[in-house]
């Protein structure tokens, strides 16, 4: 696949401009303190389309050759996971599993797919079904609705809802098999698979000795150790695209993942009402909140799944959920009937600097900690 590399050595630029991040309202800025970077490490940046979106890697390595080899390994890992987790690829492992729905046949799955499905079911139970990868049939209807700009037929929506429910996905940990009990079930890992790919790419870099790295994709990211001399990767949480929305906020990431969910660009308008691409598994219908949800967590899958769950649950139940998750924090801005609301979990607090957010009651969010 084609890929590009830009920038190396010296200091960290004022901004990394990744189109996918800017579309979702993200900008990555320089991190932490102003101490001089270690001269033995050079900054390198690579980008490549993967999973249908641009992925970007920023890393610090001793030389260009080792940087390029490490980035290549990380991108190859993402590409391999796409052939496992994608529901767009006709012969991906997930697609083949979906074809067995209702057959009564349990299917042995790979270690990667098992990890994602196991975590997905865990998150489904924790969120009371607000996060549910069996929502695929409804997601398919809403994808078609956005393309055709037409409301899904009632009969099709009802049939899709009958095939949804995380309790209909049976996992056997002894045999490492998955069974889709109902006909027309379709697993959609869009709310967790990218987080797994980001984390795996970061771990691929670390296995090659590259610990100071940031991997981003579609507005989500996984951060390793920060740039030399910095306390963390400084990330800007841009404001909601609404009049008088709260200003941008900044957070520092170190060995943490960040995910965002919202309806900034993927949405559908019908009858004067705005519907998100995020589907509520309980109703089968896209969310109507105009919102931007940001979640920081210990790993990519947790951040990814929680950002979707908080979007579905709403800020009250969503913040209670995040506060129960060790090492997690959330920031929500939404517009309801023309009224703006901003909510943060207890691990966020306003800092002394205008527009800056700091993290509290969980030092590991900004300091090194095992994932």
Question: Secondary-structure map with pairings?
Answer:
Blueprint: E1 4-6, E2 15-16, H1 19-23, E3 26-29, E4 42-50, E5 53-61, H2 64-85, H3 93-98, E6 107-108, H4 111-126, H5 136-148, H6 154-162, E7 169-172, E8 177-180, H7 193-207, E9 213-217, E10 220-223, E11 233-237, E12 249-253, E13 257-262, E14 267-270, E15 273-276, E16 290-297, H8 300-313, H9 315-324, E17 329-336, E18 339-344, E19 348-350, E20 357-359
Antiparallel strand pairs: 1-4, 2-3, 3-11, 4-5, 5-9, 6-8, 7-8, 9-10, 10-13, 11-12, 13-16, 14-15, 16-17, 17-18, 19-20
What general outline do the C-alpha atoms trace?
A: globular
**What's the SSE pattern?**
EEHEEEHHEHHHEEHEEEEEEEEHHEEEE
The number of distinct helices, counting runs of at least 4 residues, comes to 9
Model regions low in confidence, pLDDT < 50 over at least 5 residues: 4-31, 350-371
The strand order across the widest sheet is 1-4-5-9-10-13-16-17-18
Strand content: 25-35%
> What Rg, in angstroms, do the CA atoms define?
20 Å
Helix content: 25-40%
The name of the CATH architecture of the largest domain is Roll
